[in-house]
Amino acid sequence: MTPRPAIQARRLPRRRGRPPIPRLRETILQAAEAIFTRRQYHEVQMDEVAAACGVGKGTLYRHFRSKRELYLAIMFDGIARLRAELETALAAGDAPARQVERIVRGTLAFFWDRRFFFALIHGHESKSDGDAREWLRQRAQLSSLVQEALEQATAAGHVRAIDCRIAAEMLLGMMRGVNRYRTREDGLERLVATVVDVFMRGVGTRAGRRVLAGRPRLGGRGRLAAG
Amino acid sequence: MTPRPAIQARRLPRRRGRPPIPRLRETILQAAEAIFTRRQYHEVQMDEVAAACGVGKGTLYRHFRSKRELYLAIMFDGIARLRAELETALAAGDAPARQVERIVRGTLAFFWDRRFFFALIHGHESKSDGDAREWLRQRAQLSSLVQEALEQATAAGHVRAIDCRIAAEMLLGMMRGVNRYRTREDGLERLVATVVDVFMRGVGTRAGRRVLAGRPRLGGRGRLAAG
Amino acid sequence: MTPRPAIQARRLPRRRGRPPIPRLRETILQAAEAIFTRRQYHEVQMDEVAAACGVGKGTLYRHFRSKRELYLAIMFDGIARLRAELETALAAGDAPARQVERIVRGTLAFFWDRRFFFALIHGHESKSDGDAREWLRQRAQLSSLVQEALEQATAAGHVRAIDCRIAAEMLLGMMRGVNRYRTREDGLERLVATVVDVFMRGVGTRAGRRVLAGRPRLGGRGRLAAG
Amino acid sequence: MTPRPAIQARRLPRRRGRPPIPRLRETILQAAEAIFTRRQYHEVQMDEVAAACGVGKGTLYRHFRSKRELYLAIMFDGIARLRAELETALAAGDAPARQVERIVRGTLAFFWDRRFFFALIHGHESKSDGDAREWLRQRAQLSSLVQEALEQATAAGHVRAIDCRIAAEMLLGMMRGVNRYRTREDGLERLVATVVDVFMRGVGTRAGRRVLAGRPRLGGRGRLAAG
DNA sequence: AATGAATGAGTTTTCATTCAT
DNA sequence: TATGAATGAAAACTCATTCAT
Q1: CB–CB of C199/C174 below 8 Å?
Q2: Are B195 and B108 in contact (CB under 8 A)?
Q3: Can you tell me the distance from the alpha carbon of B29 to that of B60, in angstroms, rounded to the nearest whole number?
Q4: C159 phi and psi, to 5 degrees?
Q5: Is the dihedral of CA D104, D110, D111, D112 positive or negative?
Q6: Phi and psi at residue D204, to the nearest 5°
């Protein structure tokens, strides 16, 4: 409103009291994620989280009302980030079959260091637990994204006529499987290639596979990896 | 309490005190499984397990040294049962491609009511935790079984030359995915068909697919489910 | 219902499991009362209560859902006991003026070792806090009892026409005051006598005072204790 | 930050930094009293006190070393004010019996909006806690004041020969009682009149009561409130 | 052997107090 | 000086495990 020196940055809330450590919430979220995605919820203690975040336990509770809230914030945050990443990838305007590859790469990369990301807590099953419901909703959005990409690929003739919801879950499941039980030798790109190869052979059309093979024209029989 | 024939008392000098309820261990294992496979380890309380088993809490501890031991017994038991089932299926002498179908059906059926079966506990990661190690070993055996079946299929020319370890994890992952997020409408056979179809298109050879299609010979282009 | 051997005692619940320590709830209530009536609610710790009761902390929580519930149980229990005592006293059929004396004696005796009995907790004021409401109700019942005794005394011509509700609160307040700030030398009977004397001079009629003086007849001017 | 007149900087070498807000201590004391006299010590949080005072939490600690010190300051301050008031009343040179009335009116008025004022802290019983000792001392001074007034009244023949210490506690107790449990309809003057009436009938002489009756001479039988 | 009452180590959470501006 | 963010000691409560029949 009042013209202010540009250098002054945005807001001018006339900070009083001890200044907040900048981006502390984000710092906590990040450090805590590293813990919560490597161990199950109940195996993680707040003491430990605080230590890992380099803050006092009270600070945790100043930023998040409870352990559960912190946990959910991490999960929702993570899933939102993954979704954003995938959406960006999908917006790139690639050929639909190529988009599938992007999804696989993005998703595998995301979970690479978050092997236990999806270990959700179930407040006594189906109890109309707002948080659990929200979690399910978020998860569903994610698979919808994949499903939609597959539907577009179907429309483009890159994927044959199958149930894209089920196909999306299969794809996500494949990725989870290879990531969860990968060995130290399994590199990201290798796994990406394998998953895309198998999945697209499984659900793709000849046209779709041709797109991925990167050979612009020509009607070979699509011998990809091996015979 | 109940008067018993004196003659019986004279004989059988072995059994003293209350005779153990026969097969109690199995009863517990079965009832407890229904709980442990529906909720996370730490969300389950022993009180609840005891109630579900229809026995006192102390009895639980008479048969299992700890909660963890009970949990692992359930897991190992389950995984052994699944393995046995799969082994039987594989021993049937079907064509390798057909064996893959049997694996999928058997595995999906097994997990149908055990959606959270694999939510294992991780005793502080890498801590040379004997149980966790054992768990990993068991789990590995299971995937090895699948892997071996795939290798046989490869040898038979039903599956192309791919990394069967990774393929096995993909297959298990696909099954987990479709099972975990299936809707009420998704029937077992339909999912089995879909998984097998996609997977075998993904990794199979034309010969392998032909086997599954049930048409003994002939060289069509293998349009299976849809175009 | 079914006639059972008298010796068998009441119930026959076929006790199973570790037998409960008999009257443990009462024991706890009693031991905890000694603590809660000598210190403020928030100054008392459950660890301490457990120790004083000679039980584990878990046992406290097995018998009372929370610290607050234990506290309230003690208070309600105490007030009920006092009321029962007073009701018994009032049922004795004494002359109304004499009943006042009984009330004073009973009440002072009850609070003699419970000087902080009435230090109730106020969950954020007036918040329709069921417990706080209940507490107020119980307290009101107690003062009603006194009030009714005074009303009977009024009807009998032993107390003059005054507001018995206010008089009851004054009497209770007097007792609280002398008890709370009594010295080590102040004996119970002496305080009872003083309170009754002052109160009955204050609210009584000549007839009422005569009753207390114990002189059955005669119409003197009622010089009691001193001029 | 803000440029200040150089000349000011040169003068006034004493005041450096931000000048203290004048009378801030008194402001705090007053606002905090409203909270501490309505809830128990442990139910009050410093955050809340700071908010009510309209200052930061740090400021509270700049003026009072601890929560307890603030609390005691409020208590001591309040009790001192009451004492001062009563002393003024007593210094007025009224007839002793009339002084009792002044005490009652002053005390009731003071506690009218401080119903929980007397919910004092009990530093762990007997632990030679300096503050608790001081509190007891202050409280004792207050009752001494009342006691002395009664002794003067005794000397003047307005109160009969009784233990004035006990009588003082009874009077204070009566006041506490009627105030604590008064209804919305109970007006101050009505309660003052009732308490004085009952108390002076209880401990006064005919002469004392006559003084209060406001009839300068004459020997009626002193029917005050009702027959 | 079976049982459920009793237990206390271990967790989450609160809140008086400190501290960086 | 005033402030409110940060802190961690302390307190309530849980639940796997033990124990007295």
Answers
A1: yes
A2: yes
A3: 10
A4: -125, 145
A5: positive
A6: -85, 170
Instruction: Return the structure tokens found at D168.
Output: 């003082």
Per-residue pLDDT reduced to its tens digit, A123-142: 444 445 677 788 888 889 99
Where would I find the beta strands (DSSP E) of chain A? none
- Amino acid identity, position C50: A
Least reliable range by pLDDT among A129-138, B116-125, C140-149, D165-174: B116-125
- Could you tell me how many helices (H) and strands (E) chain B has, helices first? 10, 0
Mutate to test the interface with C, among D174, D199, D212 (most CBs of C within 10 A): D174
CATH code for the domain in which residue D40 is found: 1.10.10.60
Residues in a beta bridge with C204: C159
For the record, the structure tokens of B126 come out as: 């890498």
Which of D35, D166, D199 would you mutate first to test chain C, the one with the most C CBs within 10 A? D166
Residue D28 sits in the same domain as residue D79: no
Other beta carbons within 10 angstroms of residue B184's beta carbon come to: 5
End-to-end Cα spacing for chain A: 69
Same domain, yes or no: C95 and C165: yes
C29 and C75 share a domain? no
Give per-residue pLDDT as tens, D121-160. Answer: 333 344 456 677 788 888 889 999 999 999 999 999 999 9
Please say whether the beta carbons of C199 and C171 come within 8 A.
yes
Q: How many domains does chain C have?
A: 2
Yes or no, beta carbons of C225 and D162 under 8 Å apart: yes
D10 secondary structure, DSSP code: H
Q: Give tens-digit pLDDT for C136-173.
A: 888 899 999 999 999 999 999 999 999 999 999 999 99
User: In this complex, which of D143, D171, D177 lies closest to C169 when CB atoms are compared?
Assistant: D177
Question: What is the CA D38 to chain-centroid distance, rounded?
Answer: 14
CA distance D208 to chain C (A): 12
Q: Does position B14 have pLDDT exceeding 90, yes or no? A: no
Q: What is the pTM of this model?
A: 0.83
Measured CA to CA, the distance from residue C172 to residue D180 in angstroms comes to 11
* Mean pLDDT computed over every residue of chain A: 84
At position D70, the amino acid (one-letter code) is L
